[in-house]
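Hello again,

I reread your note about wanting to compare the complex against the isolated chains. To keep things tidy I'm splitting this into two emails, and this first one only covers the full assembly. Below are the input lines as submitted, including protein chains and any nucleic acid or small-molecule components. They are followed by the predicted structure of everything together. The single-chain runs will come separately.
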Amino acid sequence: SQQGEEDPQALSIQEGENATMNCSYKTSINNLQWYRQNSGRGLVHLILIRSNEREKHSGRLRVTLDTSKKSSSLLITASRAADTASYFCATAVDDKIIFGKGTRLHILP
Amino acid sequence: DTAVSQTPKYLVTQMGNDKSIKCEQNLGHDTMYWYKQDSKKFLKIMFSYNNKELIINETVPNRFSPKSPDKAHLNLHINSLELGDSAVYFCASSHDSGSTQYFGAGTRLSVL
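Full-complex prediction:
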């Protein structure tokens, strides 16, 4: 079974709205990372949040981590067409990083 | 300058052939990875090398053989290609295991 699983699998919202994606995992982690993948491209790192952190911000991105619930959320505020992509969470456990299956986000004009 | 570069970008070949994909990083990282992304976009780690030494070798057919001539390069050689090998293969690197990874643009392999 997957270590990290994103929810929802797909999300369509109007431009300007906020988008929230969630990630749940099963084992204790060292850190959790969020990546974006545009169609036909490689993954691009967005944010890394350590296991002793609860929230981090980067521009329009806000990531939360709840280690008691083994879950994380990625919030994109004031979405733009360019935010259309797949978003992956990745959990770092010991020397290994395990990626979830991703959330496909589509921003409607 | 591209931080993680892999070649070729596209690879179309017949079943049974042997092919290689090359990866180079100019970030000075110690750890490099190969991932396979299937048609459902599931990203699965195949191998991880730290300073030229293999540290992760997931359940991958032994037709796949990684080679790291130095810590800036991690090549992937695939023998006797099969239809199920068709996927996008990504190379990545990081400062150390568990830290932020930097990905190449991917190699789209199509086995006919």
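For quick reference: The mean pLDDT of chain B is 92.

B.
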